[in-house]
């Protein structure tokens, strides 16, 4: 599994198959005691004065995407902690920072996950494999199974379930 973001898509590599699995908005992870944790969704304006915990800049350019997108909307991300994984979660839980997270991130004790109004940031999940590799013949089956697993993970996130319910396109009753 790999991922990218709009305008920062992964460059195709010779011999590597890339198949999109899902595109989702990014949400914000807040300390559960944060003043915004009681809200169903937060705005970028409400996050303007926050200290952020963000991953180290990397070849995936996610930090560049975050910063560029926020600047384009008139906002700035003040990253005061460059960390990943468990340490990032502990900084958020401890009230030292907020961070962006995948929409499918399950809330854990001490952390509230909320959508950002207007869905300004997105993340695309892709499945990649070498076309001449040992699993190449399983490609379509892998895409199907990974897609099902992605939907199952999303179903465990209460914030994402609410977002999906509120953002599902209305059926076109005129069709048919």
Please characterize this protein's 3D structure.
By secondary structure, the chain is α+β, with helices and mostly antiparallel strands. It has one domain (2-8, 17-167): D-Maltodextrin-Binding Protein, domain 2 (3-Layer(aba) Sandwich). Helix content is 27%, strand content 26%. It has 4 helices and 7 strands. The protein has helices spanning 62-72, 85-93, 139-156, 158-167; strands at 2-4, 16-31, 51-54, 78-82, 99-102, 111-115, 122-130. The strands form 2 sheets. Strands 1, 2, 5, 6 and 7 form a 5-stranded antiparallel β-sheet that branches. The longest helix has 18 residues, at 139-156. It is globular. It starts with a strand and ends in a 9-residue tail after the last helix.
Salient structural properties:
globular, five-stranded antiparallel β-sheet, two-stranded parallel sheet, disordered C terminus, D-Maltodextrin-Binding Protein, domain 2, 4 helices, 176 residues, alpha+beta
């Amino acid at each position: 599994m790999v991922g990218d973001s709009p305008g920062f898509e992964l460059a195709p590599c010779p011999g590597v198959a890339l198949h999109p699995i899902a595109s989702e908005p990014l949400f914000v992870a807040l300390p559960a005691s944060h003043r915004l944790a009681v809200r169903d969704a937060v705005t970028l304006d409400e996050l303007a004065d926050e200290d952020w915990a963000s991953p180290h800049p990397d070849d995936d350019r996610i930090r560049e995407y975050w910063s560029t997108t926020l600047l384009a909307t008139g906002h700035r991300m003040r990253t005061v902690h460059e960390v990943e994984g468990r340490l990032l979660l502990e900084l958020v839980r401890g009230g030292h920072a907020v961070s962006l997270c995948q929409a499918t991130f399950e809330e854990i004790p001490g952390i509230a996950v909320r959508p950002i109004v207007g869905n300004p940031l997105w993340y695309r999940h892709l499945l990649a494999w070498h076309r001449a590799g040992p699993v190449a013949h399983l490609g379509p089956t892998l895409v199907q199974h990974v897609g099902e697993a992605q939907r199952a993970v999303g179903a465990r996130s209460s914030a994402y379930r609410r977002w999906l319910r509120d953002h599902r396109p209305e059926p076109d009753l005129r069709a048919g």
